[in-house]
Specification:
mainly alpha, Arc Repressor Mutant, subunit A, 2 strands, about 55% helix
């Protein structure tokens, strides 16, 4: 399954907002500059997160983005769904029905290919929903303890 690069940008952006803290609104341009990304595209991802209720924006001078919920209350699936949408990745088109004089499929229910794909996607979604932003934040802090301070210094500049 392929996800747009905006998912990666959104997850990193949320992590950086978590390290910035709830009192600090961070401009999209500052988040984008940290990774040398286009500001307009980072802003697009942040706006999608805002529509999903994961971040909120403060307009005007000194404005920017903040997490709208605690990191413990934001799952990776929340972020993916905000950027990619909630539609199923696999869409069965029932091509088996196009075969002339085909034998009847057992049960005539949902296509077995469709069922297999939906089970796999369900497992993928369940795994992402089981991981919160706080879980990922803790793993980063254990493996690279200097990262949070580096992010805060850059975002405060």
């Amino acid at each position: 399954m392929r996800m747009a690069e905006g998912v990666e940008w959104a997850v990193h952006g949320c992590l950086n907002l978590a390290w910035a803290g709830p009192e600090k609104a961070v401009p999209a341009a500052r988040l984008a500059a940290y990774y040398d990304l286009p500001s307009a595209y980072m802003n697009k991802q942040l706006q999608a997160l805002a529509r999903a209720g994961l971040v909120y924006s403060t307009p005007g001078p000194g404005g920017g983005f903040r997490l709208a919920r605690a990191p413990e209350d934001i799952t990776l699936m929340d972020v993916v769904a905000a950027i990619e949408g909630r539609e199923d990745a696999f869409r069965c088109k029932e091509i088996r029905e196009r075969v002339p004089d085909a034998p009847a499929s057992p049960g005539q229910g949902r296509c077995l290919v469709d069922q297999a794909m939906l089970r796999a996607e369900s497992a993928w979604r369940k795994e992402l929903a089981a991981q919160t932003l706080a879980d990922l934040k803790r793993r980063v802090e254990r493996s690279a303890p200097e990262v949070p301070a580096h992010v805060r210094r850059h975002l405060a500049a």
